[in-house]
Specification:
The protein is of the alpha/beta class. Helices cover 43% and strands 12% of the residues. It has 19 helices and eleven strands. β4, α14 (284-294) and β5 form a beta-alpha-beta unit. InterPro entries: Asp_decarboxylase_pyridox, PyrdxlP-dep_de-COase, PyrdxlP-dep_Trfase, PyrdxlP-dep_Trfase_major, PyrdxlP-dep_Trfase_small.
Amino acid sequence: MAVAEVSLEHLFRVFTMPEGKDSKLAQIEQHLSDNLADFLSQHVVTKVTSLEQIEQSFAEFNVPEHPEFVSEHAANLLEKLVANSVNTYSPTFIGHMTSALPYFHLSLAKLLVGLNQNLVKIETSKAFTPLERQVLGMMHELVYAQDSEFYNTYLHSANHALGAFCSGGTIANVTALWVARNKALAADGVFKGVAREGLAAGLAYYGYKKMAILSSRRGHYSLSKSVDLLGLGREQLITLDCPTQRLSPEKALAFGKQYAEQGNKILSIVGVAGTTETGHVDPLDELADVAAELDCHFHVDAAWGGATLFSSTHRNILKGIQRADSVTIDAHKQMYVPMGAGMVLFKDPNDSNAVRHHANYILRAGSKDLGATTLEGSRNGMAMMVYASLHIFGRLGYELLIDQSIEKAKIFARMIQSHPDFELITHPTLSLLTYRVNPQEVQLQVKAQPSLSPEFNEKLDKLTVYVQKQQREAGKSFVSRTRLQTQTYGDQTLTVFRVVLANPLTTEKDLQNILDEQIAIASKSVNWAQLTEKSTL
């Protein structure tokens, strides 16, 4: 193997002059541009390779002493990295909230990297800053629908922000709750505010023993990170049972009043618009009433479901979201933008000032530097990708994508229900659903004798795990799995398949093939034989 030259001349060429059109990197780039799906099908290898085997390719811990030619390194990436990646573009990859992307993002990604803007400040982003503010304004209008005077006043105001871009839903949720905490324990002339004096001083000054965040058990794990980071303590993330997969306003109000009577304060109720596990939407309008009665912040985590607002047919599922103080939306989910495009939106443009920071060399007072009100500092201009998608798809294009995903989920649910050996566990509200393999013989026995349910469910859990693992390792298709409780089975926790139908390339034939494969795997397993034997229980 040839060794690259160690010289300023060589390094200068790396910065300025791409290798020839016949180089490996150039070939990769051309193949990606010509036919992304074909590139992935050729290079992402569907074979059983354990994580331990892959780790062997990344076991060297010393920084390489000598430089490597770009083409040689590109060939190594194909072999070690690309071949062992996940083909999220595949129409049969329906297990997670990651999907195929429109082709134009490949070229835009190259432009984004080439420009290498840093959105922390105007001096390193210039046009990207007003572009990002415009995108936040567009998404704010989608949620809150304020009049033109409102947006003319606040869209590019140096003293306000309609929201913040961030790397994803986790940072968006943390930012929303950070704002809520600083507002709840704000300066008042005597007290300097929690941002200056700290949480203990804030709680003492306002007379609270503890402060909590309230959600259903379907709330995202980022909420647990939030209470940790904000100093509230993980035990102050209060999650209520949700057998219907939705947070009960009555339970939330009852707990909130009880918590307050004990000398505590509910900082925020978090309603979920599209839960990660089942895609359900909390009763947002009613929860807004509860938040008002408890005098607390109302945050809606719409990382998944927020894009439903593009659909005139289905947007009413999110009724009440416009009453939220803050909303999280991930463009890298149902807006089909590459990873790293989360947003938090604030109903009140003044709210961002609760976390405003300044520094002498950057983020100067009165500037329009975006970093003054964002948790993250240096970050790229992902807003450009959202900007492009909003224009290339338009609202009507997004409406079509959202509508077909929800319809496809309903079709798949009907396919599951019509098959004697499957059981639909949660019906789709948006484009997520859960189900499991459940032999007809078992379903009939449990119907006749419900007391057998717990023991059968234990065996069905093992069957579900087995089928999901075998299907994943076979590499033809992928569904994920989770554990949850439902109204049907009371306090029994079930292991189920979890499916996300967002890829517009997924067909009904693909879905039928996935079911056929699951039954084929299940029927050959020991678990199936044990379940279907008359003497099982």
